[in-house]
Amino acid sequence: MPTIDIHTHMFGYGWLDMIKQHGAPAYDISDREDSREYLVEYGTPACALEVEAFDYDKRVEMMDREGIDVSIVSLTSPNVHFGDEAISIATARIANDEMAAGQAAHPDRIRWFASLPWEYPEAAIAELERCIALGAVGVMCVAHIGERHLVDPLFAPVWEALDRHAFPVLVHPTAPLGAKACELRL
């Protein structure tokens, strides 16, 4: 029986560029005392940006070491939920294209969950359709989007589109609802 990892994260250099350019003040990339770069959410280091989270060849090497046959990769928090509408939509396209390329390079080992600009339902549905055509096997979303719970009526059209496709959704934790950006002291 194959071992399938359904909760592993990939980023992508295009996504990294977008968060560096448009993520402040809530999101940042920062070097820490252990000489590694970290994604910082609201002043708190959230995760180290390891090479295996950017390089699909390195990801597959790590999978081999750990006995994982297939990884379903997804973008973690804050996903594509920063900046304005144009930034969120562009970041979703960039991140999804990077994951589709990872699957294309390793079709027997990598699958992916799409990221959607949920705050903009028409754009989210268009991106969902595009990602289905690119080979996504589901959608990843964070536990709340901005100040809105996932049951907010704004998101109803997106949920309806997901239902029509019987598309799985991975709901992932994120910074607590109401979190405010603060200064990180190193």
Ordered list of secondary-structure elements with their pairings:
Layout: E1 4-9, H1 13-22, E2 27-31, E3 37-41, E4 44-48, H2 56-66, E5 70-74, H3 85-105, E6 110-115, H4 121-134, E7 138-142, E8 144-145, E9 148-149, H5 156-164, E10 169-172
Parallel strand pairs: 1-5, 5-6, 6-7, 7-10
Antiparallel strand pairs: 2-3, 3-4, 8-9
Give your account of this protein's structure.
This protein has 186 residues and is an alpha/beta fold. The protein has a domain at 4-11 and 54-172: Metal-dependent hydrolases (TIM Barrel). It is 35% helix and 24% strand. The protein contains 5 helices and 10 strands; from the N terminus they run βαβββαβαβαβββαβ. It has helices at 13-22, 56-66, 85-105, 121-134, 156-164, and strands at 4-9, 27-31, 37-41, 44-48, 70-74, 110-115, 138-142, 144-145, 148-149, 169-172. The strands form 3 sheets. Strands 1-5-6-7-10 form a 5-stranded parallel sheet. Strands 2-3-4 form a 3-stranded antiparallel sheet, covered by helices on one side. A two-stranded antiparallel sheet has the order 8-9. A hairpin with a 5-residue loop joins β2 (27-31) and β3. α3 (85-105) packs parallel to α4. The longest helix is centred in the middle third of the chain and has 21 residues, at 85-105. The N and C termini lie far apart (46 Å). Residues 181-186 have low confidence and may be disordered.
